[in-house]
Design goal:
Layout (H helix, E strand, L loop, with lengths): L10 H11 L29 H13 L1 E6 L3 H7 L1 H6 L4 E6 L2 H13 L7 E3 L3 H7 L5 E2 L8 H4 L10 E2 L8 E3 L3 E2 L3 E4 L23 E4 L8 H9 L4 H11 L3 E3 L2 H10 L4 E3 L3 H9 L4 E3 L11 E2 L4 E5 L5 H12 L1 H11 L31 H4 L2 H12 L3
Parallel strand pairs: 1-2, 1-3, 9-10, 9-11
Antiparallel strand pairs: 3-14, 4-14, 5-6, 6-14, 7-13, 8-11, 8-12
Helix pairs in contact: 2-12, 3-13, 5-6, 8-9, 9-15, 12-13
């Protein structure tokens, strides 16, 4: 059973290579080299009728609860709480929901205070690995996977698990795969079809007419900017022109960005979170999110908050194991898709209701720039570039 971690360079090697190449030649073949795979658990150990599973479930019910830290929004709560409690009566989900960067800070602060509360962390990817893994806050996931339908990697895209770690032990598993879009327009003002290259954003006619997520803060746009930075046809020259010459207005407030685009104040939005766009579209606002692959430079795949982590020092270790297996099961992933409307990397479930432009196309090998190897670029060379070129 192939279990593949992040196929990529170590953090230090990636940054050093990026500095040497100016970020313009890191995507040779659009696929970094493949890392070695950890030892897979034997399929039989995940039999739900096995003594081990039954003992774990009984112990989880004695614990009575699982402490879950998850992403913002009622859709996350709807996907992650009640469906599990229905599937496993007697195990209550104590949910704490917030922005991924805030949850990471909270876990770090709790560990410093000697209060390890979280059992399971949902949402942060590289932004969680980089600060939490070195301090021992995250545990390996593979030993907790018990259900055969979870450990059978033929149920997952490209027949492997999508770990985000640069190296073993693998602690952060992506279960969502979305082809990332970068451009949103007010289609009452701007024709979406005119954008066939990312360079089209640098046309002088758009100067002062664009807003964007401020990617110097972890969150929306990070995956796309890592792709830009390392793309041989984009790289630092594109980013320097876009952010340094186009008079683009930045914000970390997703709702504010949506309002600006919908009202036509800035008819083009860049790097806007699709989680904010889709509800606005459902309300009838004139917003079109361009498919990521509409641009000739292509688009990366990202996890968009769909990651699973086990937190060290768990108060409810058995309940955490049961929860992790449920989340990655067919039922758990269907619950996520139904409520959050994000594509699961499980290929054995229907994709009804998922925006077609976010679905990976068969036969296309996408660069996963949500991984740790790429993630380190966001807090280093990309932030440095933006600070250098943005007007003070």
């Amino acid at each position: 059973m192939p279990i593949r971690g992040n196929p990529g360079l170590t953090r230090r090697a990636f940054i050093e290579r990026g500095a040497a190449l100016g970020g313009t030649a890191l995507l040779a073949g659009c696929q970094p080299p493949t890392a070695s795979a950890p030892t897979a658990p034997a399929p039989a150990r995940g039999d739900p009728q096995s003594d081990e599973w039954n003992r774990t479930l009984e112990a989880a019910r004695r614990e009575g609860s699982v402490n879950l830290y998850g992403g913002m929004g009622p859709d996350n709560r709807a996907a992650l709480v009640a469906p599990f409690e229905r599937a496993y009566p007697g195990i209550k989900v104590n949910g704490t929901f917030g922005a991924g960067r805030d949850l990471v800070v909270r876990i770090s602060s709790e560990r410093t205070a000697g209060k390890n509360i979280a059992d399971v962390l949902i949402g942060p990817g590289a932004s969680g690995i980089i600060p939490l893994k070195p301090i021992g806050a995250l545990l390996p996931i593979v030993p907790t996977l018990m259900l055969p339908e979870v450990t059978d990697t033929s149920n997952w895209l490209d027949n492997h698990f999508w770990f985000l770690d640069a190296e073993e032990p693998y602690t952060t598993l992506g279960y969502v795969g979305i082809v990332q879009a970068s451009i949103t327009v007010n289609h009452d003002v701007v024709d979406p079809k005119q954008f066939t290259s990312m360079w089209d954003l640098t046309d002088p006619k758009w100067k002062g007419k664009m807003c964007a997520s401020d990617v110097r803060a972890a969150g929306a746009g990070s995956v796309q900017t890592r792709y830009w930075y390392t793309h041989p046809q984009l790289g630092p020259p594109f980013m320097e022109k876009l952010f340094g010459e186009m008079d683009i207005t930045l914000s970390t407030d997703g709702r504010q960005l949506i309002d600006w685009i919908a009202l036509g104040r800035f008819p083009i939005g860049v790097l806007i979170n699709s989680v904010d766009i889709i509800p606005a579209q459902e309300q009838g606002l004139p917003l079109t999110l361009l498919p990521g692959d509409q641009a000739k430079e292509g688009a990366p795949i990202g996890v968009s908050g769909g990651t699973a982590n086990l937190v060290e020092g768990r108060q409810n270790p058995n309940a955490a194991k049961i929860y992790m297996n449920w989340l990655l099961s067919r039922d758990g992933q269907m619950s996520w898709q139904r409520e959050v409307k994000q594509n699961s990397l499980r290929v054995d479930i229907p994709k009804d209701g998922i925006p077609a432009y976010t679905l990976p196309k068969p036969g296309v090998k996408y660069v996963n720039t949500a991984t740790e190897s790429y993630g380190v670029l966001s807090g280093t060379v990309i932030t440095d570039l933006l600070n250098r070129v943005l007007p003070s």
